[in-house]
Amino acid sequence: MAVGHPHRKSIVADHPIRSSKNVKYLTDEEINEFIDDLDHDNDGYINYQEVERKLDQEHAELVPKPSAHHIIQRDHSDDDHARHEFLRSMMGSNTKKIPRDEFARMVREWKIPSLKQAKKEEDEDKSYIKRLPGCRRIRSYWAVHGPEIVFLGLVVGMQLAFGIWQLVKYQTTPGYRAAFGWGVVMAKTCAGALYPTFFFLILSMSRYFSTWLRRSYHISRFFNWDLSQEFHIRISCVALLLATLHAIGHLTGSFVHGSDPKNEDAVAAALGPDMVPRPYIDYVRSLPGFTGITSLGLFWILFLLSMPQVRKWNYEIFQLGHLLMFPIIGLMMAHGTAALLQWPMFGYFLAFPTLLVLVERVVRVSLGLHRIKATMKVLDKETVEITAVIPSERLWKYKAGQYIFLQVPAISFFQWHPFTVSFCRGNKMMLHIKTDGNWTAKLRELGGESGESEIEVGINGPFGAPAQRFYDFNHSIIIGAGIGVTPFSGILADLQYNDDLDHGGPNHEVASPRHDSEVTAIAPNNSRSDSSSSEADGSDNVPESPTRQGSVGPDLINKEKAPHADMARTFAEDYRRVDFHWMVRERNYLLWLSDLLNDVSMSQDWHRDHEVHPHLDIRINTHVTAKRKKLTTHVYRWLLEMHRTDEHPASPLTGLLNPTNFGRPDFDQILDEHYEEMLKFRASKRNQTRHKEDENFQEDDELKVGVFYCGAPVVGEVLADKCRELSLRGWQDGSKLEYHFMIEVFG
């Protein structure tokens, strides 16, 4: 039987926003507007029950009741009681009616950011680039878009170069035009543009080649054709258009003109006397005609099978349809071998990328037959964990943040799906998969009634090296938007996982092996509340992951618990700091990485309580950017975010242990604050070195901070300019702080 908690302790979390020196809180005008919404009868008093009712109303709207697929299942009456207790603590009074002036003073003490100020900062953020001088604006734009522009310029330039070459050749040679008319000029111009188009099209399908290029940061910036598959899709459409125009030029132009009896002399002069007379059907039946028409038809079929509607309807048909590329490539190689108009060159453009893709597909098929035993465990009603030990004969080493293609023969032999690697330790690799689709739902069913089973999988990878330069910096700032930040979140979790193994952590000792699922699974049964235990027993053996938060206190988000930069002399020699900023439009998007981020937060809290010399310092900041025009919603949203209890130290609004900010982050201010902390860190380290070396002290080298960004270009331009400004400031003030801005692209 579930046991209630009528006296669950509620506290006002010490959210960093309440102690910030750069935040403007609710203005008197906003406070009066908020109170007017509560004082319906205009009697000068605020009824506590009305405030409580409004809080419950906004809670019901902002925090929907858990559905069957959600993992949070607990007594909502306890939540209501704790929330009301929290409201009482915020108001500091038990009276039922509060004078308007006194209530205004209470609201002012809540220290809720001004909604108008948030809107003003958002407008200023949008105009940041516009306020920059012309040269700085150009440099910032080029830092974000430059490499992509250069690469696309290279592709388009090669298309134009080969197309114009063929255009000039056949337009200025009278013999070709006399024999085949306008059609040959159009067809050969398109053919010239197709040479580099198909080269890059096929090359963009090679995962190993792109992974190899990522070993060089600068090269990977230029050759980012697998950015969300956008380049592959667009260049495929260009290739189909050029191929269709090429066919139209021949079928309606050169074939018609060349089969005309009055042009036989010109055709004989161009192709030889044995090529006449030649009716239209002979052109179609010839090797160039047959291979061209067939390959174009297959290309259109492949195009139709690649439509999003087909992919959503049947993923196997989508993947099997792509196998048509091999007969298409073979037909195109044979297309020009007759050498009617010029020596065959198309095959030379196709050879190298085709070899790469062919080898990769053969490897994938063989890996699908060479299966690996893995453990599949259902962690909660949304997530499954797959743990596999990679055979030692595999050539590639796996790293967190990379992705692999996963095949589960029990579901389908032909389906391979990409998933980000969550953790790696030696040959052991772990994946955490959200079961939000048809294939992943079938994967979850393989867990059976126990929620855990042994399965066989095929693993192809790894691909997409995880920001190789990330490990070059001991101080990093990661900024990402939406799901694009997932690879970096995997890197963070892997850093924390290894730090726990090396220096101890929640639920295990130093350097001792632990069960694979401890990273995301719940705490031991004896640490659960009776309520949680009873509910877990009746939920089909699916653990309730939020209960593992009971091992941390509700004051976890207090920034005073984090290592202080001016105490850097006490830090471990291998100290690493990572500031993680994740922007999402709606708070529901935070659920994608909530378990992973909470695990990192729990470990960080444990280390801060148990370590004198910190090794790893991860500071997680999430930002919900959706606009809230209604002031009451804005106020109650912040109240709910600051509400914490002993039983549930996570925010009732986001489910996260770390603090969440509402509104667009001010990265100008965030980076300035980071710079000030780095100055303190730098000064403390220099003092420590000076005391150790005494008279032999020498000025140290520059301290480099890596700023990694994956998101909207406009924010990238702001960050690029700010990093350049801070680096210049670092040399001017003698601190030698350098901020290196890097755009990250994940395939």
Summarize the structure in words.
The chain has 747 residues and is an alpha/beta fold. The protein has four domains: 10-113, Recoverin, domain 1, CATH 1.10.238; 134-366, no CATH class; 372-463, Translation factors (Elongation Factor Tu (Ef-tu), domain 3, Beta Barrel); 472-518 and 553-626 and 663-743, Rossmann fold, CATH 3.40.50. Helix content is 49%, strand content 14%. The protein is built from 25 helices and 16 strands. The protein has a six-stranded antiparallel beta barrel, surrounded by four helices. Strand 15 (703-710), helix 25 (713-732) and strand 16 (737-743) form a beta-alpha-beta unit. Helix 20 runs parallel beside helix 22 (594-610) and helix 24 runs parallel beside helix 25 (713-732). The chain starts with 9 loop residues before the first strand and ends with a strand. Keywords: Calcium, Electron transport, FAD, Flavoprotein, Ion transport, Membrane, NADP, Oxidoreductase, Transmembrane, Transmembrane helix, Transport. It is found in: Membrane. Pfam families: FAD_binding_8, Ferric_reduct, NAD_binding_6. InterPro entries: EF-hand-dom_pair, EF_Hand_1_Ca_BS, EF_hand_dom, FAD-bd_8, FAD-bd_FR_type, Fe3_Rdtase_TM_dom, Fe_red_NAD-bd_6, FNR_nucleotide-bd.
SSE layout:
Elements: E1 10-12, H1 28-36, E2 45-47, H2 48-62, H3 76-91, E3 97-99, H4 100-109, H5 115-126, H6 128-131, H7 134-171, H8 174-203, H9 207-213, H10 217-222, H11 230-258, H12 264-271, H13 280-285, H14 287-305, H15 308-313, H16 315-321, H17 325-335, H18 346-369, E4 372-378, E5 383-389, E6 403-407, E7 417-425, E8 428-434, H19 438-445, E9 452-463, E10 475-481, H20 486-503, H21 530-537, E11 576-584, H22 594-610, E12 616-624, H23 631-642, E13 643-645, E14 660-662, H24 667-693, E15 703-710, H25 713-732, E16 737-743
Organism: Fusarium tricinctum
InterPro entries: EF-hand-dom_pair, EF_Hand_1_Ca_BS, EF_hand_dom, FAD-bd_8, FAD-bd_FR_type, Fe3_Rdtase_TM_dom, Fe_red_NAD-bd_6, FNR_nucleotide-bd
Main location: membrane
